[in-house]
């Protein structure tokens, strides 16, 4: 989640989106707001075909991180992994930037994924879902970027630490940070178990094509260097939290599909809940940062409701920090 003040400014009158989309060929009058969370996303048409403009505030997402993300996506696509791809602008660039009074924004236009999001599928194809992530990890294991590198779990924890220092009353979160950091530092980062992961391989970012029985993937903007098991644990958030027979069956099917492509140590499967502790802590820090300096004199109607929702999420996460390891 981006800082809420930046969200309000970035959405105002669609000014940023209109400035950026002017760098790509598109059908005039088709730009429409889609969503805003960690980035801004607008749908747009070109020759009646749908594409998506995604942009972010450079102060929150540095340009070199976007470049590294796109390089990884292009690598995956070249090697046959079905994911969306960035489209060049009229200037031949994959990333365009605009300067506005509130700051600088960088945008990318992506193709639309084929199929429907997994959450719209009646019977979740968990084995195919697991196979797809395993295929991504196999390619990641051989990946060596030509340009800059994406951040790692260490930078994510450093970000969390910096946020928590601005909130010194968050004692439970600081204690959780120390536990998570010590645990991750104790795990060997073996080549077969560690690499650049998607980090958000959940059902809203994975699209199912019924005819081909294939999956197509979007949204690599959270990708980072981490253990591959973290990617699985993040993908299976709902199943791990479910605790019921259906969630357990889906988890087993996903792991079965994953293991049909590449090995997965049982110790890593048992560690899924601890990897979830990393994800919860990192999400908590991002939510705290999003709420900072978010008091605005002239705020849109939706802002108060969103702030209330985010504060409720933070309260729920605080309760989890005291749970035993």
From TrEMBL:
InterPro entries noted in UniProt: Aminoglycoside_PTrfase, Kinase-like_dom_sf, Pseudomonas-type_ThrB
Gene3D superfamilies documented for this protein: 3.90.1200.10, Phosphorylase Kinase, domain 1 (3.30.200.20)
Domain of life where this protein originates: Bacteria
Ranges for domain Aminoglycoside phosphotransferase: 41-264
A matching Pfam family: APH
UniProt family annotation: Belongs to the pseudomonas-type ThrB family.
Name by which UniProt lists this protein: Phosphotransferase enzyme family protein
